[in-house]
Amino acid sequence: MQARQLLAASLFLVAFLALAGYALDRAFIKTARDRLNERLQSYALSLARETDFARDGSFVDPFNLPDARFSRPGSGLYAEVVFPNGHWDSESAQGPQLPAAALLPRGTSRFEGPLPMREIDGSTGEVYRYGLGLVWSSDENNPEAEFLYTIYVYESTDALSAQVQVFRSALWRYLGGAGLVLLLLQGTILRWSLLPMRQVIDELKRVQRGQAARMSERHPRELEPLTDSINAFIESERENLDRQRNTLADLAHSLKTPLAVIRSRLDDPTADGELLRDEVRMQVQRMNDIVSYQLARAASRGHALFAQPIAIQPHAEQIVTSLEKVYADKGVICEFELDEGMQFYGEPGDLQELLGNLLENAFKWAKSRVLLTVKPVPCDDGRRPGSLIAVDDDGPGIPPEKVALILQRGVRGDERVQGHGIGLAIVQDLVRAYRGEMEVKASEELGGARFEVRLPPGL
User: Fold this and answer.
1) For 105-157, what is each residue's pLDDT tens digit?
2) Is the pTM of this model over 0.85?
3) Cβ neighbour number for residue 378 with a 10 Å cutoff
4) Burial of 202 (0-12, 13-18, 19+ CB in 10 A)
5) How many C-alpha atoms does 45 have within 13 Å on its Cβ side?
6) What Gene3D superfamilies does the database record attribute to this sequence (predicted)?
7) CA gap 228, 209 in Å, rounded
8) Superfamily for 309-455?
9) Burial grade of 74 (CB within 10 A; 0-12, 13-18, 19 or more)
């Protein structure tokens, strides 16, 4: 992940610096050309002030040139005056073959280039040219005495190219240095920002190697959902493993005694055949009860940590319909208070066990009415809400001092009522497996008992 992010960021940074360098290069060239245009224009205006013609239209050499390079051959700065019957070149233009020049209209200026020219040594070169169109008048009252002339100022591209080269060298040197520093800084920041992820990976490897029991609690807030889910998964898997081991151990321990009794009876040569069959039948029934009990216990614990949501109402209606047939002689009616769209996040069998045992217990003790309530428990941190599942009846109720007793496995609230005393214990085990809470209290609405189950919000 770090390598991919660093590669992507590096490519983006290189592309950005390249575009920035190109933009700065273009801006510098345009600025340099504009300054060259202004400088050549200044030379042309200075020459215009020094330019003079005789009455016959012949050109009079200027005495004061704006730059000494105009008087030095091959200096790279040239001047030319074009008029109707000829042209004048500065001394610097003696030798180089300047580009062809034409008269420009009055008041017209033109900057152009680079234009090709032939140097003194015969090689070719390029120049920038600025032209300014003017009018000379020997008599202001006689328009026929006026004629057009144009002043051209040339400068070799060598000076501008040298400036651009120096600028480009400095630009790419500084951009390259800045890019290298930014890449190092970016790598350091990326490595620092991903340090919590590496710590999570290291902790996970330690858990896999058995060097740690679970992920630690000290992680950034953004990674807490991940580490909490991993810890929940680890705990769930360990609970499932412990449950399987305990179930097998309990089953083996429970079957050991009946098997020992059967073996001892079979080994007894004086045992009566009819009594032996009754004893074996009784022990087989006992083993069958033990197996049923252990299977019910195993089914009541453990669930998929990230199960798909299950609609509660269809399961509740199915269970209530069956119970109303079983207890038809009592005429018990079950009422529903279910928020629309309520869902259970767990195993379908767990939902059946939870609702089935609670509702069956309520039908068993109710006089005529049972109330099933299912509501969401809101959560402030953005997780999915929890659930409130409550079953009320109008039966005799449960004294507070007997609540802990009836929740024990194998204990019945009234020995005269048929049952095995494990239904509510299974419900309690299920609630614990889902990290919820169960409360038994008096029903304020129906007057009997109220079994209230609260399942926590999801991860």
Assistant:
1) 998 999 998 898 887 666 788 899 999 999 987 666 665 668 899 999 999 98
2) no
3) 8
4) exposed
5) 8
6) 1.10.287.130, Histidine kinase-like ATPase, C-terminal domain (3.30.565.10)
7) 19
8) Histidine kinase-like ATPase, C-terminal domain (3.30.565.10)
9) middle
